[in-house]
Design a protein that fits this description.
By secondary structure, this protein is of the alpha+beta class. The protein contains 16 helices and 44 strands. The strands form 13 sheets. Strands 1, 14, 15, 16, 17, 19, 20, 21 and 26 form a 9-stranded mixed beta sheet that branches. Strands 35, 37, 38, 40, 41 and 42 form a 6-stranded mixed beta sheet that branches. A 4-stranded antiparallel beta sheet has the order 5-6-4-10.
């Protein structure tokens, strides 16, 4: 099934406004106040800092592009007001609080736009400004998050004061803005930035191991064309056997089979998963995959947003992997594959995520692409976070692969190329409104990786579903680099640094490992990590054993197997275009070929399949931010006292297989950021990164999944009750002049511990307007003076968002507040008149302070 969004016609200014006005009316029916309060003055500009790609360097610059270079489907990102942002955070907490009337009360895209989008007047002002520069306006998103528009490089130069240049990086041609864009100051309260003005791509997170053959008579898997080999061996190097993972192997290892075999089956029936990709697919590949493994016939629905991208070689592989493996785990679910082409200015992946969310396409969406926070820039990070925040409010669980570059996401996986950019995480995975999925590897041969020993975890032949896994296989971090301790065990050196400096390990001095680490660069003022102003704050739900007390968002949240054959196991994917013979996954011939693949690109869609099983079992139409529940599950009474260590074989009752061994640290070039070199003679060191350990860790998150236990325990996760109290003005009546400070004290208590995290003052509790926010002290209380109460007569409550142990709560009763306007005063001003007869006032600054006027 295929549907195609028609191309938009070219429209003049009047036609554009007539087109957009109905969208404005539909999307904005709430009480949002206009924030663009003055006329647009093109001579008074605001720089959108941190929005020049770090690879758009002078050394790569080949000069300005032709003026008519198409810049299509750019996304102008719109800001929410602080009040709207506070109200949205309150709603998201309530949607996960079983005691709240808003529990799982998901919004539609139009409801989201009406409540949290810009005022209609502001949308019209921004749209008119874009149209006045000749841009074609396609749409305002239903959620009020972005305006999509198209134009040329010359129009971008004139409107945003940013030259588009050609850059050649590693032999590849790119278009990109050579400096940060600028907008009129009047638009700054509503416009966050542009996503984007370049075509540096977001990278798919799969790692190709090669082409393999399965022999029909014996079930033996042989390497046909491996992507790489290991020293003195073939692609399956420990003992010559390959242990490829098919759907029933996965279901056996991660205990999905009890769900499939239940009556009625919990297999995703009635559920929908959206998959996004930048290539068309050959639907026969999916059919062959399902036939080979005895899965029921279930063609994916294919939706094309904009021009059809056609078959794009590397990206088709990503799409086949995601579609086949989301449907391999949720074999009864409807898979909606949405494809779009990237443009000279915008990633197709971003267009697609917006499409899925704005059309409420599915309660689960999986995205297997990544790029580091630094490379996304300030506006790119704002987009990734805002669209996932909207998804969460609509009940959509956004799932993202954590990346395949270990702790060095700004670097690329290339043979014999160590990290040079320092510690970094994927900005597509680090948003606190999505689930980041990392990667593990199987200990096929026991904890010491003994070579020449047959695996105890796999049968020597396959069954009727082409499966041979005996049961759960102990796991470690996925790390295919010379920092993996297996190289020490095999005599490459006395420690990882020594191994990486051994000439025999040259092909393993790269960054191929499961992604993870700390959010650190969502706001940037320059081209390197030293210019970063910080990452996402620690979300309230991210707490529990092992979670670092670092104040920032850590990833991944969970992990699944992701190795591309390092210990002889990998995922099976059917794609005829990658097979030498041109046919793949045909069970009726003596030997059938398939592709061996790994990477967190495989783990993410597999986890999306598990979330579809959760939705089916719980009878839910979505979970929103699933991390609210995921981080509570290890604290259930049923998990107390269980040995869940993944390296020893976890207890049968464990929800998470706790990965406690291995590292995602990768080799790095001497003198590069965060590179630790102990031996002064070494050219390569070890990037200070993250090791697995008990409980949560930044290598594998909470661990991997026992699917049956996860699904059956989902509704048992609940928070300990909290009680919030608020005292304003020391308990006296609150009658203030606007801007006047008033003392406030908020205390949160709970049984069995002391609540932690943030509290906020919320005015007009019915509409939930956030006013001020503070962090609780170690005693669960905080006192401060606030001057942020808005004018008017209303009531105020204190809202506690929870901390992963204690649930959210609001103070009662509400405190009545009366805030009167300030006394007006006359100040000298200089007036000028615009061509429209509007007057602009330039206020004279107070004495003792200087202010520059343009």
């Amino acid at each position: 099934m295929r549907s195609v969004r028609p191309a938009l016609p070219r429209l003049g200014l009047l036609s554009v406004l007539l087109l957009l006005l109905p969208l404005f009316s539909a999307a904005q029916t709430g009480p949002a106040r206009p924030r663009i309060v003055g006329p647009i003055d093109e001579t008074r500009l605001s720089v959108l800092k941190g929005n020049t790609h770090p690879l758009a360097l002078p050394g790569f610059d080949r000069g300005a592009v032709p003026a008519d270079l198409p810049m299509q489907r750019m996304l102008l990102i719109l800001k929410r007001s602080p009040e709207q942002e506070g109200a949205l955070e309150l709603l998201l907490d309530q949607q996960q609080d079983k005691a709240s009337p808003n529990y799982h009360r998901w919004l539609t895209p139009d409801e989201f736009g009406a409540t949290f989008g810009p005022a209609e007047q502001d949308l019209q002002t921004v749209a008119s400004w874009l149209a006045s520069h000749g841009f074609e306006l396609a749409r305002v998103s239903r959620g009020g998050t972005v305006i999509e528009f198209s134009g040329t490089a010359d129009q971008v130069r004139q409107a945003f004061h940013a030259e588009i240049h050609q850059f050649v990086v590693n032999g590849e041609q790119h278009w990109a803005n050579a400096s940060d864009p600028q907008i009129p100051e009047a638009l700054a309260p509503v416009v966050a930035g542009i996503n984007s003005l370049h075509n540096f791509p977001k990278e798919p997170n799969y790692q190709l191991h090669g082409e393999f053959s399965r022999w029909r008579d014996s079930g033996e898997i042989r390497s046909a064309m491996p992507e790489y080999t290991y020293p003195n061996s073939n692609a399956c190097h420990f003992n010559g056997n390959c242990y490829a993972v098919g759907p029933y192997d996965f279901a056996t290892i991660y205990n999905v089979l009890p769900l499939w075999n239940a009556n009625p089956p919990v297999d995703g029936t009635g559920q929908t998963i959206a998959i996004v990709g930048e290539s068309d697919i050959n639907i026969q590949d999916v059919r062959d995959f399902r036939t080979l493994f005895g899965l029921p016939a279930n063609d994916p629905q294919i939706i094309v947003d904009g021009p059809d991208p056609g078959i794009v070689a590397d990206l088709e592989t990503e799409a086949d992997l995601d579609v086949e493996w989301s449907g391999a785990v949720a074999k009864g679910a409807t898979i909606k594959y949405v494809a779009a082409a990237s443009t000279n200015s915008t990633s197709g992946i971003d267009l697609l995520l917006l499409y899925v969310v704005d059309n409420n396409l599915a309660p689960v969406v999986s995205e297997s692409f990544s790029n580091c926070e630094l490379f996304l820039g300030t506006a790119g990070n704002a987009f990734e976070n805002a669209v996932r925040q909207q998804a969460a409010a609509q009940g959509i669980t956004a799932i993202n692969s954590s990346g395949d570059e270990g702790s060095a996401r700004c670097d690329a996986v290339e043979s014999n190329t160590p990290a040079t950019h320092g510690l970094a995480v994927s900005g597509l995975a680090s948003s606190p409104f999505g689930v980041a999925v990392g990667g593990t590897d199987f200990l096929n041969f026991g904890p010491n990786f003994t070579s020449g020993v047959s695996s105890a975890y796999w049968f020597p032949t396959n069954d009727i579903q082409q499966a041979s896994a005996r049961g759960y296989i102990p796991e470690v971090t996925w790390n295919s680099t010379c920092t993996n301790n297996v190289f020490v065990l095999f005599g490459y050196g006395s420690n990882p640094e020594a191994s990486c400096n051994n000439p025999s390990a040259a092909n393993f001095r790269d960054v191929e490992a499961g992604g993870g680490g700390k959010s650190a660069c969502t706001v940037s003022d320059g081209a390197d990590l030293s210019s970063c102003s910080g990452g996402y704050a620690k979300p309230s739900w991210q707490s529990g054993p092992g979670v670092p007390n670092d104040g920032v968002r850590d990833i991944p949240d969970v992990s699944l197997f992701a190795s591309p054959g390092f210990t002889d196991s990998f995922y099976i994917v059917c794609e005829a275009d990658l097979i030498t013979s041109g046919t793949s996954c045909n069970p009726n011939i003596s030997s059938t070929n398939f592709v061996g693949i790994g990477g967190t690109s495989a783990a993410a869609p597999a986890f999306a399949g598990l979330m579809a099983l959760v939705n089916q079992y719980t009878g839910s139409n979505g979970q929103g931010v699933a991390n609210y529940v995921l981080y509570r599950l290890p604290l259930l009474a049923s998990q107390t006292g269980l040995n869940c260590a993944a390296s020893a074989g976890p207890a049968s009752g464990c929800i998470f297989n706790d990965v406690t061994s291995g590292t995602i640290s990768v080799p790095c070039a001497r003198y590069s950021p965060n590179c630790y070199v102990a031996n002064g003679a070494d050219n390569y060191g070890v990037l200070s990164g993250y090791d697995a350990g008990a409980g949560y860790d930044e290598a594998t998150g909470l661990g991997t999944i026992n699917a049956a236990n996860l699904v059956q325990s989902w509704n048992l996760a609940s928070f300990s009750a909290s009680v919030t109290t608020l005292t304003l003005n020391n308990g006296n009546a609150v009658n203030l002049v606007h801007g006047q400070s008033v003392p406030a004290t908020v205390t949160v208590t709970g049984n069995g511990g002391t609540p932690s995290g943030a509290v906020s003052l919320v005015a007009n509790s019915a509409s939930g307007e956030g006013v001020d926010e503070m962090t609780l002290g170690s005693n669960g209380s905080v006192s401060w003076e606030t001057n942020r109460l808005p004018g008017g007569n209303y009531s105020v409550v204190a809202h506690y968002g929870g901390d992963g142990v204690f649930g959210s709560s609001n103070s009662t009763p509400p405190v009545s507040v009366s805030v009167s306007p300030e006394t007006s005063s006359v100040k000298p001003s200089v007036f000028t008149s615009t061509q429209l007869g509007q007057f602009l006032a330039a206020c004279v600054p107070p004495r003792g302070r200087r202010r520059n006027f343009r």
